[in-house]
Amino acid sequence: MTTNQLISEIRKKNSFLCVGLDVDLEKIPAFFLKEEDPIFSFNKAIIDATHQFAVAYKPNTAFYEAYGIKGWKSLEKTINYLNENYPEIFTIADAKRGDIGNTSSRYAKAFFEDLGFDSITVAPYMGKDSIEPFLAFENKHTILLALTSNEGAYDFQTKKVGEQELYKQVLETSKQWKNSENLMYVVGATKAEYFTDIRKIIPDSFLLVPGIGAQGGNLRDVCKYGLNSNIGLLVNSSRGIIYASKNDDFAEAAAGEAKKIQFEMKAILDGVH
Amino acid sequence: MTTNQLISEIRKKNSFLCVGLDVDLEKIPAFFLKEEDPIFSFNKAIIDATHQFAVAYKPNTAFYEAYGIKGWKSLEKTINYLNENYPEIFTIADAKRGDIGNTSSRYAKAFFEDLGFDSITVAPYMGKDSIEPFLAFENKHTILLALTSNEGAYDFQTKKVGEQELYKQVLETSKQWKNSENLMYVVGATKAEYFTDIRKIIPDSFLLVPGIGAQGGNLRDVCKYGLNSNIGLLVNSSRGIIYASKNDDFAEAAAGEAKKIQFEMKAILDGVH
Known about the structure:
Two copies of one chain form a homodimer.
Chain A: H1 3-13, E1 17-21, H2 38-50, E2 56-59, H3 61-65, H4 68-85, E3 90-97, H5 101-114, E4 119-122, H6 128-135, E5 141-147, H7 153-156, E6 160-161, E7 164-165, H8 166-174, E8 183-187, H9 195-201, E9 207-209, H10 219-226, E10 233-237, H11 239-242, H12 250-272
Parallel strand pairs in A: 1-2, 1-10, 2-3, 3-4, 4-5, 5-8, 8-9, 9-10
Antiparallel strand pairs in A: 6-7
């Protein structure tokens, strides 16, 4: 998917919501456990119920790997279901990969070509040659961890490297990489005040923002400092939507939560333009 | 496996060689392609031929993920084969994972409990709460990326954070994490002169050293600066061993290469003690 297609979808739906598919068998309605593939069945129901309010879905691969080969099958079925039924949806493999060049090429092929994801999250620690193999794929997007929403973000990311914090150094440096126009960035919502500085460095890039809801971020603050003329934000919510109810009404409850966020997003977008 | 068991195995075999199982279908002897599971069959042959010269095996998970569910089956069979036939061997899932706490717990469970690896490589960028879930597993080892062997290591890892380079900051900070005795570190062999400083910070920890051979590191230099009283090194070679020949003699050729390195290691250990 091209960035322009994503932007046009956002404008059409008045939504920049990403739904995180972090599925835990202990948290989904119990009746799914009787199904052949509980995770996929649950995802399918959630996607069908929420897709009109969302522009992106983000399975975190750890939740699938935790169930071994079965889990990988569920992931494969989920991405296939999305691509077949909702090709207008932007898909994110939240995998946080990154390795030396020939290995990163393998990951890129696996997630972009074989599984057919539009994008993947990657970690910056190993630098340029660990990321460029991902950037080489046309109309695929590489979402680099910059400032994450967890407490450990303060261990290294916000430490000063010379004049500026490490995460800013990551932003600056990555702009110089080949095909850097295919980069997006993870910026946690728990630190809305940081968005002003971030937008000075990467005014045009899309930011994937986790941490709304369960992790404590505030949507209005994030938008105030993070929106750009092309929206430039994908705001993720996982548990708040997919676990809105553990009962028979789980799908309607998920749709209700997604709609609530989309409604807020529309109000914000209406206020801006 | 406990660290003491690993040390005793190293002393018994006079080897601290780790064999990297980075299997590429295009590089293994063509006759394997007729088999039901070419990757596992190849790994099995390599392991059987080289196990007496090596103390550890390290499949890089990217190479398996690249083949989708089939690849995961090959990985599962490989680790099961190692655990069943060579329980004295230290196993490393080279996965370079790292995510927020509840997600890292998933990865830890998947690799330590379900797959049964002794250790996993992880990336430090997300800090303490992304790593501690791994450290919580008893007699399992978490191998933190410190200084990698690729060119991109100079992008961030060697940048000064305050008084010292980022990778040193990673070493210092990680020592304070809970159960830090379960930490080992990745330190690339292409930078042997760095080992002196590294040993000042973590004198007792095991270091996993990639980059001997294909990536240009030198075994004697690494040992000169990196060995400690408990050896404290696992030196990895992947392509140099597993692709020593593409013909019928691939297993003997792999054994020959492994033996050559083990012979050098023995000479170094004999010189030290």
